């Protein structure tokens, strides 16, 4: 775990990695709707416990959590005190890392909020 | 002083309008409405507690001297009170309320009642398992203690079926059937209302709901399955001569119609014009002559050519259909 965190520290947060958590949330959200629509249309009822959906949710949460941990590691890069609002590489990195971390937190909660009704309601009406 | 008491009266009147036992989620006679009331009270108590907590914090924040907390402590307060606690509270509320939102299971043995929303009345068809459907309109009777499956649709535009004391509302959409499974627990006479704006007389589109003990309901339904026993001969002649049967079906007299409300047991209903007027001879006669006076935008044509005596004779005939 420690080695993994050390490796995470070496990764560079960019605008591309910033969009990983919200994109995962968006894909999971779309998947939830499709899952319900296809399940109800094809078999006319709800699976007792939609295993594939639960696995998909766990995978989405792991991806978001990993993005959050990497971003958290990088936001702790040692250096001058805040505010980090200079046009330098290190301030840019800190800004992107912190934003990614906040987005990961939001996306993590959002995926749970989306998954709960799908798992608990289980009805096509 | 007078202005103040008027303002208080107006505000109180708004709240008092909710104090009734025949059309209120807060006075439930069905299991689902009881759940909704429970959730409402839980949410209300939670909201009041949170609002009180926020007010206390604001008071503290305004009174605290500047610089009494450092940046780090301030950020920690933002993280906990602005992020973590609201998330956990919302998660808890969602987990608590989701089981209440689960639709009630239905079984094939349940009585099915098909209800179509029309401008501005309700087409009702009881479909007891294994028996032919029984047509009715503008009044719904259900047994207590048994689940009943409503199959809801719209005949012309989108309506919404809402019996506040029984369950939540459900849209009635043309070309689509929505299912609503309910269970009434307390016998009595209640009221439902269209809850989706559907035209000029939307507010005048209501219906009576009568929850009956199962044995009494079964006897009533058996009675409803019988054809009408028309009495008044003069009224029957007027009904035929004026072409009423073109839109209104009366089992045993003419063929069922898809246009207007079925009148087979019209006289046994308690209200007229979709829950708007008491079922009296004078009201029925006046409605036949000028339905648009009671319901603007109604599709039924006026019959001003009928004399008072003729309208009364027709009303007497219709009220005799029990």
What does this structure look like?
The complex is a heterodimer of chains A (125) and B (322). Chain A has five helices and no strands. With 125 residues, chain A is an all-alpha fold. Chain A has one domain (13-121). In chain A, helix 3 packs parallel to helix 5 and helix 4 runs antiparallel to helix 5 (89-121). The mean pLDDT of chain A is 85. With 322 residues, chain B is of the alpha+beta class. In chain B, helix 5 (233-241) packs across helix 8 (308-319) and helix 6 (281-289) packs across helix 8 (308-319). Chain A binds chain B through residues 105, 109, 112-113, 116-117, 120-123, 125, and chain B through 83, 87, 90-91, 94-95, 98-99, 101-103, 178-179. Chain B: InterPro entries: CcO_II, CcO_II-like_C, Copper_CuA, Cupredoxin, CuRO_CcO_Caa3_II, Cyt_c-like_dom, Cyt_c-like_dom_sf, Cyt_c_oxidase_su2. Chain B: Its main location: membrane. Chain B: It catalyses: 4 Fe(II)-[cytochrome c] + O2 + 8 H(+)(in) = 4 Fe(III)-[cytochrome c] + 2 H2O + 4 H(+)(out).
């Amino acid at each position: 775990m420690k080695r993994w965190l050390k490796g995470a520290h070496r990764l560079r947060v960019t605008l591309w990695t910033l969009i990983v958590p919200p994109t995962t949330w968006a894909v999971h959200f779309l998947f939830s709707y499709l899952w319900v629509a296809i399940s109800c249309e094809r078999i006319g009822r709800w699976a007792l416990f939609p295993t594939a959906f639960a696995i998909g949710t766990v995978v989405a949460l792991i991806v978001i959590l990993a993005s959050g941990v990497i971003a958290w590691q990088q936001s702790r890069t040692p250096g001058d005190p805040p505010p980090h609002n200079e046009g330098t590489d290190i301030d840019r990195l800190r800004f992107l890392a912190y934003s990614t971390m906040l987005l990961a937190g939001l996306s993590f909660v959002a995926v749970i909020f989306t998954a709960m009704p799908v798992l608990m309601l289980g009805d096509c009406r | 002083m007078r202005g103040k008491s008027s303002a208080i009266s107006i505000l109180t009147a708004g709240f008092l309008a909710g104090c009734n036992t025949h059309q209120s989620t807060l006075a439930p006679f069905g299991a689902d409405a009881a759940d909704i009331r429970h959730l409402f009270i839980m949410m209300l108590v939670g909201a009041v507690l949170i609002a009180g907590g926020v007010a206390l914090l604001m008071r503290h924040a305004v009174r605290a001297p500047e610089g009494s907390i450092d940046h780090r402590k301030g950020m920690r307060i933002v993280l906990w009170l602005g992020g973590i606690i609201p998330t956990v509270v919302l998660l808890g509320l969602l987990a608590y309320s989701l089981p209440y939102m689960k639709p009630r299971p239905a079984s094939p043995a349940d009585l099915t009642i098909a209800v179509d929303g029309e401008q501005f009345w309700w087409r009702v068809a009881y479909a007891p398992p294994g028996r032919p459907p029984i047509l009715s309109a503008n009044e719904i009777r259900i047994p207590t203690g048994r689940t009943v499956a409503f199959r809801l649709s719209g005949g012309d535009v989108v309506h919404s079926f809402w019996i506040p004391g029984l369950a939540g509302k459900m849209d009635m959409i043309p070309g689509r059937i929505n299912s609503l499974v309910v269970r009434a627990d307390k016998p009595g006479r209640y009221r439902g209302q269209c809850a989706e704006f559907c035209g000029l007389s939307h507010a005048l589109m209501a219906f009576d709901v009568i929850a009956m003990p199962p044995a009494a309901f079964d006897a009533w339904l058996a009675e409803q399955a019988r054809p009408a026993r028309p009495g008044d001969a003069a009224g029957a002649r007027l009904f035929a001569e004026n072409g009423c049967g073109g839109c209104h079906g009366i089992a045993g007299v003419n063929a069922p119609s898809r246009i207007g409300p079925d009148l087979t047991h019209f006289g046994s209903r308690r209200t007229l014009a979709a829950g708007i007027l008491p079922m009296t001879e004078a009201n029925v006669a006046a409605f036949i002559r000028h339905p648009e006076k009671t319901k603007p935008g109604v599709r039924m044509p006026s019959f001003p050519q009928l004399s008072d005596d003729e309208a009364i004779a027709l009303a007497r005939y219709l009220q005799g259909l029990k």
